[in-house]
Amino acid sequence: MTGIEVRELDRKDEDQVRTFWELERDAVAERPYNDHLAWHAAKTYFPMDFPEWDRRFWMAWDGDRVVGTLSANGSTVDNLHRAHANVSVHPDRRREGIGSLLLDRARSWAGPEGRRVLAGEVFAPVGGTSPALAFAEHHGFGVVMEDGMKVVDIPGTRDTWDELAAECAPYHRDYELRTVWGPLPDDLVGGFVAIQNMFISEAPSGDADVEDEVWDEARLRGIEARAEAARRRDARTFALASGGEVAALTEAFVNETVPHRGLQSGTLVVPAHRGHRLGLAIKVANQRAMAERFPELEWLMTGNADVNVHMNAINDRLGYRVVERCLEVEKTI
């Protein structure tokens, strides 16, 4: 493409990182709710090495102006056959071939690395399409799963929490609910790791060519240390069986620099402990803890596969509403 040059980001150059971050911010600005990385987190994470991930970043330059970005990564400890790519093009420069040029760079990196599946996420309005979805379809990516992206209004729903907690309480009398901020105490590490190692198998993954992740304490501690540096505050609520066994877990986080918004991450009840309303109970407890620590918190975002009937029902009770679709797409390379 005439005049456009793709160059790798210098991750140690904060000015370049800021330019990269601003373009990605502008590319998602049209979405009223998004989880664009806080700037403090971006400038912290970009220069770091992540032992469990091979991360690469490129920028498309038109002269002295950046018009597109590419983030690509692949796990170094599991799912070695997969790579993930995120292409962003400035809204004023779409449909000029810039995205295609960046996608070619992702393929040329992933293929020689032995990664035969290139995956991504594209967002679109409910019942509609978007430039990102059209781009993925044009390049032959297939949708392997559809998630409803949901938001809950924290101030508008917190009056329901007592009633929901009371409804669940008779069903989990033999369990302790425990919320932890930041690094996990040693007695919870084994249970946390066990849940992460089973998460992919137990949560709906549609037609995605994906395997269980491989977690250990070293991986957890590395993530916790990076989160601390980035001012990301993780709230985790566990349900513990009478012997101390981890029966269920939910995670959410807020970055202290943008405390009005947060991201609800994974929730899983271990199969042997289902049927005790633990999923709803731990999510209520976790939201309560987050609202107490961050009174500025306005909303939490999460995503649920359309086929995940149980979790969708829980989030309906909590007051989540669908604001857009996330299409998980894949292509064999």
Q: Concise description?
A:
This protein has about 325 residues and is α+β, with helices and mostly antiparallel strands.
Question: Care to describe what's here?
Answer:
With about 325 residues, the chain is of the alpha+beta class. It has two domains: about 5-115, 3-Layer(aba) Sandwich (Aminopeptidase), CATH 3.40.630; about 150-325, 3-Layer(aba) Sandwich (Aminopeptidase). Helices cover about 35% and strands about 30% of the residues. Strands 1-2-3-4-5-12-6-11-10-9-8-7 form a twelve-stranded mixed beta sheet, sandwiched between helices. Strand 4, helix 3 and strand 5 form a beta-alpha-beta unit. The model has no long low-confidence stretch (mean pLDDT about 95).
